[in-house]
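Deliverable D5.2: sample structural annotation.
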Amino acid sequence: MFSIYGISGQVFSGTLEEMNRVNALARAKAARAIAQDGDELGIEATVGATTRLREDVVMAYRSMLPQDLERGPLYHASQIMQTKVISVNAGHSVTDAWRTLRNHAIHQAPVMDDDARLVGIVSERDLLTAINVDDGHIVESLDRVVRDVMSTPVVAAVPVTDIRRIAAVMIDKGVDGVPITSEAGRLMGFVSRGDVLRAVVTDPPLSLWR
């Protein structure tokens, strides 16, 4: 289950499929899949062979995994999310926000209003539109606050959301992280691309595709 939060509060709550139809989030044109290109060129057999080869590789990898190292299935955002979330206030200066990200060695943070409501997300890229940094130090800054440069509305998910659907949102919407909120909208955690990658590569191996 996903929600969309903006300056005015929650503007959407529903499934991924429903969210993709919301006009507030303009979808970038998706790149054509290899199979689609192959259909146009009449090389379905080649595409089919490639798919079978990929499946054979996956099966071979799975057969090599030590069975006693199996961690079990990993399904929900709550299993990989960061619960100690660093956030910034929409009214704080871009300079303060940059220092917050740097001090905590993070690249993005949820943005909250004065009533602790999620209203956006801000990244290093967003902040660099208003500050000039040299060797990690701010040398020049425009008179801007976080709400001037943050991305809003922001997509959020509840803790029981399927990890694969969160990954799909990151790809489809071009975002690097998804805030995790309660049904009431309270910020509970954050899932970044790094969290997903760490879950995949951590030893013992992860059963993500069951």
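Annotation notes: Confidence is low (pLDDT under 50) at residues 26-44. The helical segments are 16-19, 34-41, 44-64, 94-103, 124-127, 146-149, 163-173, 193-201.
The annotation will be released with the project's public dataset once the embargo ends.
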